[in-house]
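Running co-folding for guanosine-5'-monophosphate.
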Amino acid sequence: MNKYELGGVLLGRDVIKNKVKELAKEISLYYKNKPVHVIGVLKGSVIFLSDLVREVDRSIQMKLDFLSVSSYGASTKSSGVVKINKDLDESVVNKNLLIVEDIVDTGLTLQYLINILRERSPKEIKVCSLLDKPERRIVDLKADFYGFTIPDEFVVGYGLDYGGYWRNLPDIHILRKVD
Ligand code: 5GP
């Protein structure tokens, strides 16, 4: 069993803050004339989502809903198994959905989510992800709005965890293996 410890900062809080503002501007422009139903994917996206939605222009008509999926457990590798643990509270029929994710890695989670939400007849589905790890992609997916492309490293902080820990860190760190 490998042990891990907190490594160096990959993305500092100021860099993240600026990027969140840029993303919020793009999102404000895109949803200028249509209401948006933001879907937060628990728990990894909560810190990002709460910063992001407060930067979106106040004229945008926005609602928030959350769902929880499990894909990793206490591991750094994708199991490929994605399960809904908590479903949305509201119907998404005929709504403009914006899924907010922390990271797109293999893309399996997002593909699964998009597929199940599509079956519920929304008007549109867009995706915003803070991080994109394209090197490990298994399915051909790209977020419509994304913050940073990162290398193939396991990262924690700013909502992202390892075994439930480190979500509260204000910066994004690399997780380092201890021999
Ligand atoms: P995917 O299904 O795209 O492989 O993985 C998506 C989910 O895996 C993310 O929502 C996140 O919970 C987790 N994940 C993928 N890469 C990382 C990473 O580098 N750090 C952390 N903490 N979680 C990750």
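Result summary
The pocket of guanosine-5'-monophosphate is lined by residues 44, 71-72, 78, 101-110, 133, 154-156, 160-162 (CB under 6 Å).
The CA atoms of residues 19 and 159 lie 16 Å apart.
Job closed.
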